[in-house]
Amino acid sequence: MCLGGEEEGMEETFDDYLDEHGNIRIPEGRTLVDHVEKHTRNDANTLAYRYIDYSRERDGEVHELTWQQFGVRLRAVAARLQQVTNPGDRVAILAPQGLDYVVSFFAAIYAGTISVPLFDPDEPGHTDRLHAVLGDCEPAAILTASSSAAGVRQFFRSLPAQQRPRIIAVDAIPDSVGDTWVRPDIAIDDIAYLQYTSGSTRVPAGVEITHRAVGTNLLQMVDAINLDWNSRGVTWLPLFHDMGLLTVILPAVGGKYITIMSPSAFVRRPYRWIKELAAVSDGAGTFAAAPNFAFEHAAARGLPKPGESLDLSNVIGLINGSEPVTTSSMKKFNEAFAPYGLPKTAIKPCYGMAEATLFVSATKAEDEAKVTYVDRVELNAGRMVPVEPSAENAIAQVSCGYVALSQWAVIVDPESVETGGREVPDGHVGEIWLHGNNMGIGYWGRPDETAKTFHNRVVHRLPANSHAEGAEPEANWMRTGDYGVYYDGELYITGRVKDLVIVDGRNHYPQDLEFSAQEASKALRPGFVAAFSVPANQLPALVFEQGSHSG
């Protein structure tokens, strides 16, 4: 598996990143800056990033950066940042989707500061979240684009002048400024960026992602999906989302160029995404990542026009994650695009989270997505008991595949936390705990929450067939807050610990209740049903504060 040239005339392979035990090992001192600089030297004229702007033209305007051009822009923006920031300062990215965003993210790291990928203040419905995150990370500077600069300045106008961060439009910085760039003194275990969690039930927390963590996680993805230097990616995901962000960081470690479009471009015309996944003359395999709803949306509205040619035979893997994966969405997508050569193995249900950088597990490259039918009553009682699909209490569970190389995931009895985590056998539901070099090192500025979440011990491992085997006895484990279970070696996610609905002493997973409601009436739109518990004889006073947004 070739990952590109390390030196002129030499190719770097995946095996070069493995230690004597077959585990992923990032060479000491290798940071994201080193990865990118390698490409600017050895692949200067090779395409690195491509953005299709559909805001003015129906068929889109294509903007591209080679590795050489990318490196020039990074040094220029980083040099400007070095004039107004100190090493370790936070630099927030408040730019629209596009190449300026990618440049901004990497340039903050090139400057020796900590990159904080956020979003344009014009993004509807996210003002409170943006205020909360900016208050948490306290950035010294903001990187944006000229088209958004006025809105960004307006956003900070309420602050006293001395408290406002420096606002910089990256596209207004001349390339020549890069002549003053000083390579930062950063180490592999320094924080590269803060990935803020969704914050659906709390104030968003910034996960501290080191250079080692992101490098390890990218190689885990390369291995799991079987990518190589000729693989190219396509994404419409927001670049501040961990799944979108890792997709655009990936070329720095392995893979070909990435094609980017905006989320709205996909939602309005999902065929744009499908078309970019199609085969091209160079024969490159393609990959992408998207949440579950995208597959159903593309199946319904993303087919080519009658008579239009479309070849999807080159699709390596479509990571399906970020929300519960449903059998119906996969079935509809496969049926819609199988006539165009889509491999049956294309969709890859996966499991991941910001605290793990992103990726934890996925279906093997050569396997089709696996669905196991289990007894609902037994599952609610904490046991995974397979049944026939036609059985009365049968419920479908989608496998999230096998845990990534050099990632450890154990299922722990949630009641055993205070006495030391106790691993439960396969087939039994418990909380998923994670360990590995891909893990974040904590939450920015939250030592107590960091200790509670990231610094746990699995004291009572199974005497045989433990999923903690290979991890040091004193290893720290991260509590995910997710319920899961192993069956036939594969990981299944059954729900969130905090979301469990308890009625008359019986456990119910909210996604099961939501699915049953959606299947019972076509009047209910998929993805627009929420199940939650309230005290007896009491209705919630307020369900939604803001209007919902499809997609």
Overview of the molecule:
- The structure is a single chain.
- With 551 residues, this protein is of the alpha/beta class.
- It folds into three domains: 2-261, Rossmann fold, CATH 3.40.50; 369-500, Luciferase, domain 3, CATH 2.30.38.10; 501-551, no CATH class.
- Helices cover 26% and strands 22% of the residues.
- It contains 14 helices and 25 strands.
- The protein has helices at residues 32-42, 67-84, 99-110, 127-137, 146-155, 211-225, 242-249, 263-268, 271-277, 292-301, 327-337, 376-380, 447-454, 510-520, and strands at residues 2-5, 11-13, 47-53, 61-66, 90-93, 114-117, 141-144, 166-169, 191-196, 206-210, 232-235, 258-260, 286-290, 315-320, 347-352, 359-362, 371-375, 394-398, 402-403, 407-412, 430-436, 478-487, 490-496, 501-503, 506-508.
- Strand 24 and strand 25 form a beta hairpin.
- Helix 1 crosses helix 2 (67-84) and helix 2 packs across helix 3 (99-110).
- This is AMP-binding protein.
- One of its GO terms (cellular component) is plasma membrane.
- Keywords: Fatty acid metabolism, Ligase, Lipid metabolism.
